[in-house]
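I am writing to request your help with a piece of structural work I have in hand. Thank you for your consideration; the sequence and its tokens are set out here:
=====
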Amino acid sequence: MTRLLSFLASAVVISSLLFRAVTPASACTCAQTPLEQHVASADVIVIGTAVEFFTQPPLDPAVPDTLQHRGYVHVTTEEYLKGGGPVAISLATEKTFFFGPDGSVITGSGTCGILGESSIGRRYALFLNGALDSVSDPGICSGSISLTIDPSADESLQKVRAILQATPTTAPPVAPTEGSPGGLPRSGGASDGDSSLVGVATVAALSSLVLGAGLVWRWHNRRDV
């Protein structure tokens, strides 16, 4: 009986050690930060779609080298909620590639990135900082939203728009990059419906001014008569 208990105890210890050995590294842990703070701290908030994953320098598995190849995601932009910028941007990801001694390709990656090879075709609201011609993956702790797979994405995006409309900021100059002839202006969080209301209000105001000027002109003419 004693031998059986000793065997069982040893089996438990060994199983525990094996479990720890195969358990992957813990996932990224984000601090509890209010959305308002994320919005305020971001230089640029942009909505766009990931359309391409590539490496720099280019990686050719048939030609091993000693370089580290960084993965990038190319994003076409559709709306700048805060700030302004080009119609497309490329973001450096946490994904890296290098060759092992036997010539095989070894990959490395962090746990906090929001962009990667699986991003292609997905829409995002990205909270970015720094120059857009050398920007990196903002990560899942930045306030960025995966609009394609996050079930609460629509609600989160509405909150971002509301925050921006309540605290308007001045958009920096648009800075087109090479290959991008122009850029997109900042919407300030206003949706298409908001823009339409502004246009209607503007037309109504101008019509009122014209009508008022006409009444004043007729009144002066009657006095002269």
In short: Residues 7-25, 173-181 have pLDDT under 50 and may be disordered.
